[in-house]
Amino acid sequence: MAYSKYAFYLNRLGRDTGFEDKLTSYCFRRGCANAINGKASDAVRDQVIRHNPLTGVFNKAYNN
Description:
Blueprint: H1 3-16, H2 25-36, H3 42-48, H4 57-62
């Protein structure tokens, strides 16, 4: 499946289930990162979301 088709259906799923904001794959990425934050080491968390270690990207962009 092409990414554009995946994004279309994901957006439609979000709309049909009542999400106010557009549902994207980034929503799942961010949710995963926040779910494992504090349950795994920072190094493991960064590896799961494919961030370079010690860059602080998670704390700047993902952490709620």
